[in-house]
Specification:
six-stranded parallel sheet, alpha/beta, binds guanosine-5'-diphosphate, four-stranded mixed sheet
Length: about 325
């Protein structure tokens, strides 16, 4: 597949945009093993939606490589109810960083797309070629449109200006520093928190959104960060590439697994007034496997580590619901 030589990160100045988020912080952990200078810019110093500020920051700091892990993110309900934020913020972040990176002569840029931009009716497991081959899942179309725009920007700058900008598509990720807010977070942090709190408060019923039937695959964020570094160094193509996960599981099965880990023994009700989203979302792993990468952390192990992290935050009397 890849004809360019490896792009070594050794000795480079690497900007992790979005370093405080779940993926960004996992990237920082992974990059600690690389002999490189890591750049970060916190939200109060740099608003990525501000074009002039982004140009100035990149011009001043001159990164060689950029991971664009910054985004306005949230689960199914946040996407559905805050369309303007999901569309505007994500388009602006991507357009500003990608354009400024091109102007500043950044050597390599990786943009993180999202599996939710694949068509709702795509054949499963979803191949990269399915992008834009059908209508989006309506509950996340605003986010999906923004992420597709960003992928297209990477491709356009590669075609028109020869930039080594790549776009990858992670599957559903989870792990430390996820968003544990009950209304805006994804399913794993929401269930961990609900079950943990119900257990502590002696409640014997929690609600699970939808029917419990949808199928998902998940990837622990440290595995994902490892894949991102791997692809940054070895992948250089216009085509997007899936960062696929491990086992496929139903939402009801996932809930049972989380109940066992958290020690929650109460009832689980299905709240069918809440949407299911895509009936099945699993990524085709052939391309990344062919390059030689595969995940090593099982869903069970990842869930255990995430619960451990969550408990360490909860015991600090720390607001673990960051919101998005
Ligand atoms: P999605 O893959 O974009 O749909 O991401 P989510 O993690 O938000 O949702 C995955 C599935 O879990 C959907 O079928 C949801 O309806 C279901 N689900 C069950 N309970 C919850 C919950 O408390 N929060 C979220 N976000 N999803 C839940």
């Amino acid at each position: 597949m890849d004809v360019r030589p490896w792009y070594s990160l050794e000795g480079k100045r690497i900007w992790v945009a979005g370093h405080a988020g779940m993926v960004g912080s996992a990237l920082i952990r992974r990059l600690a093993t690389v002999r490189a200078e890591i750049l970060t810019a916190s939200r109060d110093i740099l608003d990525l939606r501000d074009q002039a500020a982004v140009h100035r920051w990149i011009g001043d700091h001159r990164p060689h490589a950029i991971f664009v892990a910054a985004a306005r993110v949230g689960g199914i309900e946040a996407n559905r109810t805050r369309p303007a934020e999901f569309l505007y913020d994500n388009v602006m972040i991507a357009a500003n960083v990608i354009h400024a990176a091109a102007e500043a002569g950044v050597e390599k840029l990786m943009f993180l797309g999202s599996s939710c931009f694949y068509p709702r009716e795509a054949d499963q497991p979803v191949r990269e070629a399915s992008m834009l081959m059908g209508a989006f899942e309506p509950t996340n179309e605003w986010y999906a449109v923004a992420k597709v725009v960003a992928v297209k920007l990477c491709q356009a700058y590669r075609r028109q200006h020869g930039k080594d900008f790549i776009a990858v598509v992670p599957t559903n990720l989870f792990g430390p520093a996820d968003n544990f807010d009950l209304s805006s977070g994804h399913v794993i942090p929401a269930l961990i928190r609900r079950m943990h709190e119900s257990k502590l408060n002696g409640l014997d019923g929690i609600a699970l959104w939808g029917t419990g039937k949808p199928l998902r695959e998940f990837l622990y964020v440290d595995d994902a960060a490892d894949a991102l570094v791997f692809l940054m160094e070895r992948y250089s193509e216009e085509a997007i590439i899936n960062v696929a996960g491990t086992e496929e599981v139903s939402i009801a099965g996932l809930a049972a697994q989380i109940a066992a880990i958290t020690g929650y023994r109460g009832q689980i009700h299905f709240d069918t007034s809440k949407p299911d989203g895509m009936p099945r979302k699993v990524l085709d792993a052939s391309r990344i496997r062919a390059l030689g990468w595969r995940p090593v952390i099982t869903l069970q192990e990842g869930l255990e580590r995430t619960y451990e992290w969550f408990r360490s935050q909860a015991s600090l009397d720390h607001p673990y619901s960051r919101g998005t």
